TrEMBL record:
Organism from which the protein derives: Shimia aestuarii
One MF annotation (Gene Ontology) recorded for this entry: hydrolase activity
PROSITE patterns, per the entry: NUDIX, NUDIX_BOX
Cofactor: Mg(2+)
UniProt keywords, alphabetically: Hydrolase
Stated name of the protein: 8-oxo-dGTP diphosphatase
Mitochondrion keyword on record: no
Length: 144
């Protein structure tokens, strides 16, 4: 099945993030507590900066592999939208994997730890990154 994403894949973008649902839970990552990074000690989602001429999907899947050790097929991406922030474009995707995927997570070297939480908890978590809370809310509203 081919999924259509909202946005122009030819748009120059800065990075991509993923709302990764494993079973009913959302996978979150507590960022390192370093003053020289954006959003230190905040709860993030898998993803990061673009390398070379990657597509948005390639970028987010590579970052998810690096951060969580999960190799997801592009077909796992069920929703995507291009967002603009401070004059830069960023992809935001969603993917759903079965609960049996959870034990396969192998946390990488960036961040303090990961957690599987309810999407509602991420939306209300004080130290969640606000623009990702908003993008997750967009996805949940469209999904119904």
């Amino acid at each position: 099945m081919s999924v259509s994403f909202d946005g122009d894949e030819d748009t120059v973008f800065h990075g991509a993030k993923l709302a990764l649902f494993i079973g009913a839970n959302l996978i979150t990552i507590l960022r390192d507590d370093k003053p020289d990074i954006p959003w230190p000690a905040h709860w993030d989602l898998p993803g990061g900066g673009r390398e070379g001429d990657e597509t948005g999907a390639q970028c987010v899947l590579r970052e998810t592999r690096e951060e969580l050790g999960l190799i997801l097929p592009e077909a796992a991406l069920s929703w995507g939208r291009l967002y603009w922030r401070k004059g830069r474009a960023f992809w935001f995707f969603a993917a759903q994997m079965p609960a049996e995927t959870l034990p396969q997570i192998r946390f990488g070297s960036e961040g303090q730890r990961w957690e599987a939480i309810s999407p509602r908890e991420y939306l209300t978590r004080e130290l969640a990154i606000p623009q990702f809370q908003s993008r997750l809310a967009d996805y949940l509203a469209e999904r119904g």
